[in-house]
Design a protein that fits this description.
The complex is a heterodimer of chains A (372) and B (262). With 372 residues, chain A is an alpha/beta fold. In chain A, helix 5 links the parallel strand 3 and strand 4. Classes of the chains: A alpha/beta (372), B alpha/beta (262). Chains A and B meet through helix 8 and strand 9 of A and helix 3 and helix 5 of B.
């Protein structure tokens, strides 16, 4: 707790420090490549008779929105005088983003990653090592993201004086969900201006995938006060909710405490955390950011799920109609957006394309047979 | 007066420290775990029982593995309470302290959990991942059932926060001897000694030291620094880890435990 209180205090100072904020803004522009484009998906829009816009976070440096938060927190770590950062990663996207920010800012970087994820995301493991990070395999529990977070937290409580824990999603104990939201909210701030410039009005719908929920909260935050904008968070439906093999916390979970936050959790009746399943490693987590639980309870955001199959089909559809290969996480959002478009002709739908799909090629090759 | 307070008072008069062995409920299975606990109860001044949890953040590899063994062999919160009850029936005067992660308490319902704990014969409950800021309903439920809420104190805990902990804690203070998770360590650090002295100066409660006590020499060192007791967990638990099938686990663990009793 004292470490969290210290972090909260330092973060408040960092936020109020004009020079620090200017430096962050400069790096977002000349290192990350912001603002990212808002792209009108003309072919899909014609096909589905709706106006579909994609916020192209896949074009950010390292290929996903994760870099916004990684860079922000790495700057914060330097600001706090910490020389070492600790990160966890599932798919490897946050690990790569953290390793990138650490390399750029001269910080030592240790990334915890479950053995199962290391097996299925080899290129990202190599990428992190190439960037100078130390990747530590985690063999405990289910050997996936939640166990990597356990191990990262254990490292942090052991090395709390020298290290900053660079948490990758809008979850964990306060102030992390707020810090991550703030660093990611650049997505929504840009999208708000871009869609207004482009269409002269705000969109009817925002759609984003929700694992921990950082890309979704980053997009939603700026629009929360705009009551007419409907928002949808898309969870991983895995093999279907009925099979039990999914990561749809809002559909199958209940209120619980995981990694220092109270939110919706997939657990058994005793409170033992259940293993989750999704074709996309980035959505494969038994808990969800607490602000999403709040927004759901307040009926401000609706949460739905897309199955593996739907996400894979959406991945192919976007690749072949627009020439954009989305990350499997983002493909969940695309899948639901297409459903929404079918039901609501003429409406404007803004989808957060949180990452690019290069990292998923091996899985795609395994799942989708392309002969023609 | 609870069994915990009584025991520390009696040991103080006898000028002895409290030996507090820790085992995970249901490790490696219900029947063997019961035999181990009943055997340990003969040597223990206070018995600490951890409930297995899928994501034990405060624990090192030895206790993580113990929890996984127990869960794999069908341990549940309900069965853990049955174990506690059986130990209680065999040892009516032995103080029993549970270490339980917050989600297990929350999932059962906070009041219901403490009611079941009291019914099983529990004297104290430590929730290692429960910050003081969120603890009010847990403390109220514990007090209502006559259970001592036990709290951790570490070298990084600021003095103002320690004072708040002293106000809420009952039974004893659990001093975390190292920064980090449970597990064996080579020696007692000067920071640990300083922490014990700092706690003893201000705390009205007895101070027991845990996390990393893995030899009788270390136990003696913390007692010399003023500790009223010491908790030995990972060292004992790893005996199960080395050979979970061994028939003589209770004897082996008991033999090692006895080396800590002077």
């Amino acid at each position: 707790m004292p470490a969290l209180q210290e972090l909260e205090r330092d973060y408040k100072k960092f936020r109020a420090d004009r020079a620090a904020q200017q430096r962050f803004a400069r790096m977002l522009s000349n290192y990350v490549g912001r603002p990212t484009a808002l792209y009108f998906a003309e072919n899909l829009s014609r096909q589905y008779k709706a106006k579909i816009y994609l916020k192209r976070e896949d074009l950010a440096h390292t290929g996903a929105h994760k870099i916004n938060n990684a860079l922000g927190q790495a700057l914060l770590a330097r600001y706090r005088g910490k020389k070492r950062i600790i990160a966890e990663t599932g798919a490897g996207q946050h690990g790569v983003a953290a390793a990138t920010a650490a390399a750029r800012l001269g910080l030592e970087c240790v990334v915890y990653m479950g053995e199962v994820d290391i097996q299925r995301q080899q290129p990202n493991v190599y990428r992190m090592r190439l960037l100078g990070a130390k990747v530590v395999p985690v063999a405990s529990g289910s050997k996936t993201l939640k166990d990597a977070i356990n191990e990262a937290l254990r490292d942090w409580i052991t090395n709390v004086e020298s290290s900053h824990y660079l948490l990758g999603s809008a979850l964990g104990p306060h102030p992390y969900p707020a810090i991550v939201r703030d660093f990611q909210s650049v997505i929504g701030r840009e999208a708000y201006k871009q869609i207004k410039n482009e269409t002269g009005k705000l969109p009817d719908y925002l759609v984003a995938c929700v694992g921990g929920g950082s890309n979704a909260i980053g997009l939603f935050a700026e629009f929360l006060a705009e009551k007419k904008v409907q928002m949808v968070g898309v969870e991983a439906g895995g093999r279907g909710l009925a099979t039990g093999k999914h990561a749809a916390r809002f559909a199958g979970g209940k209120a619980g405490i995981l990694h220092g936050t109270k939110s919706y959790v997939l657990e058994n009746s005793d409170g033992q955390i259940k293993p989750t399943y999704s074709v996309s490693a980035g959505l494969d987590y038994p808990g969800v950011g607490p602000e999403h639980s709040f927004l759901r309870a307040a009926k401000r955001v609706r949460y739905v799920s897309a199955t593996d199959k739907e996400a894979l089909a959406a991945c192919v559809a976007l690749s072949q109609s627009e020439g954009i290969i989305p990350a499997l996480e983002s493909a969940h959002a695309v899948a639901y957006a297409l459903k929404l478009a079918k039901r609501n002709p003429g409406k404007t739908i803004l989808v957060n394309l949180s990452g690019r799909g290069d990292k998923d090629l091996e899985i795609l090759m395994d799942k989708i047979n392309l002969r023609s | 007066m609870t069994r915990i307070t009584d025991t520390f008072a009696r040991l103080k008069k006898e000028k002895k420290p409290a030996f507090m062995p820790f085992m995970v409920a249901g490790d490696p299975n219900f029947a063997m775990s019961l035999r181990i606990l009943l055997q340990l109860a003969k040597t223990a001044d206070i018995l600490e029982i951890g409930f297995p949890y899928s994501d034990p953040l405060a624990d090192g590899p030895a206790i993580q593995a113990a929890g996984q063994r127990a869960l794999k062999n069908g341990m549940t919160t309900g069965k853990a309470f049955q174990l506690v009850k059986k130990v209680r029936q065999a040892h009516p005067r032995l103080p029993i302290v549970l270490m339980v992660y917050a989600n297990l308490v929350y999932a059962r319902g906070i009041k219901q959990f403490y009611a079941a704990a009291a019914n099983a014969g529990t004297d104290g409950v430590l929730v290692p991942d429960l910050p003081l800021e969120e603890a009010a309903p847990y403390i109220a439920a514990a007090r209502q059932r006559g259970i001592d809420p036990v709290f951790l104190a570490a070298q990084t805990t600021p003095s103002a926060r320690l004072r708040q902990i002293f106000q809420q804690a009952r039974g004893f203070l659990y001093a975390v001897s190292v920064l980090g998770v449970t597990g064996e360590r080579k020696r007692v650090s000067p920071q640990t000694i300083r922490l014990i002295r700092r706690l003893k100066k201000t705390a009205a409660l007895p101070v027991a030291v845990g996390f990393g006590i893995s030899s009788p020499a270390q136990a003696r060192a913390v007692v010399r620094a003023g500790a009223d007791g010491y908790i030995v967990g990972s060292l004992l638990v790893s005996i199960v880890g080395r050979n979970p099938q061994a028939k003589d686990l209770p004897q082996k663990i008991h033999k090692l435990a006895r080396t800590f009793k002077d």
